[in-house]
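Practice record 12: protein with adenosine-5'-triphosphate.
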Amino acid sequence: MSLIAVNGLSKAFDGKQVVKDLTFQLEPGKCVALLGPNGAGKTTTLRLLAGFTRPTEGNITFDEQSLSTDIRNYVGYLPQFPVFHNWMTGMEFLIYVGQLSYLSKSEATERASQLMDRVGIGDAKKQRIGKYSGGMRQRLGIAQALMNKPKLIMLDEPVSALDPIGRREVLNLMNELKKDATILFSTHILNDAEEVSDELLLLHRGELVEQGSLDQLNNLHQTGKIELTFSDNPDSLKEDLEKLSTVEHVDVHNRSVNIITSDEDATRKELLQYVTAKDLPLTKYEVAKTTLEDLFMKVVSK
Ligand SMILES: Nc1ncnc2c1ncn2[C@@H]1O[C@H](COP(=O)(O)OP(=O)(O)OP(=O)(O)O)[C@@H](O)[C@H]1O
């Protein structure tokens, strides 16, 4: 049985649809990445699931109950830009959040203390939040989302604003939290999605364009990929390569070129003819496997 079933979910602001007809399910115990470029509709989707905004169409059920019930016992939410009262200590803040979730003062105090230890900021219980680093604030935000022992934790871009150390800390924490609850987190960073998620929901312009495990998506979309390196990047290379009949997608980064092809053999022949005809300084030709980044770029550039 799924923990959440989303059916035909749409949201429009002033007549403009920003989330379009999403249908998906989240199974208990999974960590799912909601992946998409800026403006794809990730935050809006999470806000719909958290009950902060109402859908224009469609419905969401948690444990087979509709969203119209009080869902505070089901979800924990970390917004993309969490706001803290800097003058409060971490403990004070969590106790305050716990009481908002109907915990008694003593229950909230006990839970707050456990959670600060759990997310690795136990030493800062009595420190004012204004003194916390970015990584510590994000850990506190995650602790806040866990106060009501939710079945589902939703984290909106939990690591995007962090430096590499903070990012590593929070990704490690997410890997640990997978044992306790279902996690849905949004990101536009492919490595993060690959590193911690069991499944991916790929969102583009408000639509769910792909969904499945990393292996499923890789197998489903595995196509030929050719990597070329030139000693000098010729003019109009991208435009010329895109004209070759079997080439599906071309990315040029300085002197390296990635080509996605529907027919590796045919593309090789076309490419070598093109390189010879133009007398281009090709220094490397390699056949590679497509990655999640290739799939993402292909979908997003369509
Ligand atoms: N309250 C609102 N009123 C009007 N338009 C909105 C509102 N909230 C979001 N939008 C629009 O909906 C679209 C999707 O925004 P959303 O924040 O959900 O995307 P996102 O994928 O989270 O983007 P980002 O990665 O940049 O945070 C954007 O075009 C945004 O301007």
